[in-house]
Fold this protein.
Amino acid sequence: MKVYAYIGIITKESKKNLQQEALKRYAIKNSIKYTTVFEDKLCEKSFERPHYRALQQLMRRGDIIIIKELERLGRNCKEIQQELQIFKTRGVKLLVLDILMIQSIQGEPLNELLKDTTINLLDYVA
């Protein structure tokens, strides 16, 4: 099992620092050592994420991916749901620091219900 972190930045250095600090605090608090931290600089016109795609190529069943914000997975609810399905299908655990109840732990029906409900609620609010 490997633990990866992903940071997606939309041209603001302060946003990058917030994500880095949150990932660092979580790692220290939980005695986690990241195998690799992947980082992409995003722009609003294009959602190209070469480092995220590289992470997807590396991740294997049992690995853990940690991100600060759910929005790092996609530009809208549909894209986020598609990415969450990829994690689920591949058996990869996803930890979203801003919403820690969204942890794609395999075989836990209550967790799946909470995750789906939260995604739908976020879509409704957006």
About this structure: Residues 13-29 form the longest helix (17 residues).
